[in-house]
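for the writeup, i need someone to sanity check this before i put it in the appendix. the sequnce is what the collaborator sent (i think, or maybe the updated version? ugh). structure was predicted straight from it, no edits. if anything looks off just tell me and ill rerun, i have time this weekend
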Amino acid sequence: MAASTFSPGHVLAKRYQIQELIGVGTTAEVYIAEDLSLHRTIVAKVLLPELAAHNDVRNEFRDHIVRGATLSHPSIAKIFDGGQDSGAYFMITEYLPGGSLAELIGEGQVLSMADAAKIGQDIASALDYLAREGFVLGSLTPAKLLFDQAGNIRIADVALAGLADNYRHDFTLNQVRYLSPEQAQGLPATEKSDVYALALIIFEALTGEHAFPGNSAEQVLRDRITSPIPARGELGTLDMVLAQATVPDPAMRVDASQLEQRLSGIVETIPSYSEIPADSSGDPFDWGFEDEVEEEQSFEEVAPTPFKVRELPERGAAIGFNPDAVQISGGRRARDVVNTRDFQEVNDEQEPIVKARPVPRRPMIDSDLVSASRPRGSRRGLVLASIVIVVLLIAGGGMFVAGMFSSSSTVPSLVGKSMTDASSLAAKAGITLTVSSHAHSTSVPVNDIISQTPASGTSSKSVNVVVSDGPLMTTIPAGLKGLDCVGATAKLARVGVVATCPATQHVASATVAVGRVAEVLYNSTVNPVSVPSGAHVILALSSGKGTGTTTTTTVAGPAVPNFVGMSPAQVNALSASSGYYYHTVGVHAGTKGWTRVLSQSPAAGSPLKKHSTITLNVN
């Protein structure tokens, strides 16, 4: 491992004293530290130097800290502070000593259905909250689900989500295990992508096995696009819930709120989960950040017994990752806090008092008295009423034949609409909407309608539509890095991808020989997992260590982010973090009625001065 930025004893911002380095993830160095002002153990996460070198990453990191500090949810870890010290950018987060779900599963333990349902409910509630606040994780894994001292689960690393995406050089097998089908096809993550990842995590926690246990990243991604989640007996009543949360089509997948409701129904029928154990060995652990932490920072610990309360370590490395600047209070060490979550006290011994509501009695009526008192003219009235009813029925039948009571309606225009919007329009028009087929399209976004039969304006009781599956995706073959241009181009051509090696496109690399392929670029994505079939990619060659005169597209200064496919909340969040303004055009432009970005100008990856305005075509 490379030398760490700070040594034990260093005091960040004259307040946080570094004690030890726990490990290094893909975005940050992680330290156990002491808050000298409040006398408590905290965690300091320092942005990796290679990422801090980019102005856009630094700005986004600061923005994430500020936005993350406003989050308040019992299942989201807190961020206390952030700043800069000696040229390094850091964030201060709460210390969570209970370990990660990944560590628990890695020891060969599996959760009971009660434990898994309760944990899933808590995390689904947090995901729903994050979605409403405009946060999309896109990289939820068991390593980012941590337990506090009382055994309550928290989502960590919310503020780091997506921070290094544009500068990621490759993906490990563990990183792609929890990606959704839409992410596997190269589409941006949405809040439903996080729901899919959570369902895979619950499956793994219950069975001890991955839902898609491939031996390569390519196989894992390919399997989840074409195969449903396996049925297993251990899932019990969670079987159907997880199936609904892993539907490949995100439009048909439940959202976080719906998943929480379904899991809460199961939780109510089974006992609540017991306390998650802390470790009793006293040794520090490598808990709470990405799986790719280098092996030499790992620590050995005594394997915990499932769900038995054990003594807490003096210094653990389970860490949280979320700020909350308004909640710095108490001055206690984290290990002295029993439970920071607030619950309403309920006296279970006292039965609720329910007052009886008076029900009016129905008077008892003698049927003989009613018959005897009926006027003679009533029978004649009944005969006349019957004649009128028959006449009306005959007239109604004639009008029905004439088409006056026809159930047909005018078919609305559905082409280009999302399935959600199309279903709503069809329901309002009283028309049955049927998906007749799916087709790949390079111009129509996934889950939007390509064509309809009959055409709009036609009178009909039903309409059939063809739904877009997005572009046909091709997995980028492994092993391109290090090849020469000819070999890499030929390898990509065999899978239908066109590649070129521009003379002006080089990147500095300490690991790839000069003149060999160092990166694959597609639009604004570096080293994509998959691209549309027939796509044109650029192969950036290595210029050696620190000798490059030109850089890759993502490093060459400001570049327009990709807004296509995003919801209003996601657009607002990305606009704020990227420093670009936007205005909308299209059917619902300028209103709160639009739901998704169909296209943008200029295109993603184009160079554009910060604070410029981007045009978004919305529906």
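Confidence is low (pLDDT under 50) at residues 272-379, 399-406, 547-557. The first strand starts at residue 11 and ends at 12.
thx in advance!!
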